[in-house]
Write a structure and sequence with these properties.
InterPro entries: CHIT_BIND_RR_consensus, Insect_cuticle. The protein is of the alpha+beta class. Helix content is 15%, strand content 55%.
């Protein structure tokens, strides 16, 4: 479930930047693991990978970065597991 929420958030983030072109798009999806990377011309980058820890729980790690409206570089690194979503923000 967390996997679906995280992917949906990143897709919404991408669609909100419709004027940007895709520079890099890679994905590998298997039954028990996945990973993908995305890079856009407007300096947005995202990477995520995860694996099925047990029958019902995914462990997901990833990061995304962008340039804020104020011109600052922002990078968010996160993990998500059965204990929740754990982000670290660097500015």
């Amino acid at each position: 479930m967390k996997f679906i929420v995280l992917v949906a958030c990143l897709l919404a983030f991408t669609y909100a930047n419709e004027d940007a072109e895709i520079v890099k798009s890679e994905s590998e999806v298997n039954v028990e693991d996945f990973k993908y990377a995305l890079e856009l011309t407007n300096h947005i980058k995202a990477f995520q990978e995860g694996h099925l820890q047990d029958k019902d729980n995914w462990v997901v790690k990833g990061e995304y970065e962008f340039v804020s409206k104020e011109g600052k570089h922002v990078k968010v690194t996160y993990t998500a597991d059965d204990h929740g979503y754990h982000p670290t923000v660097e500015q």
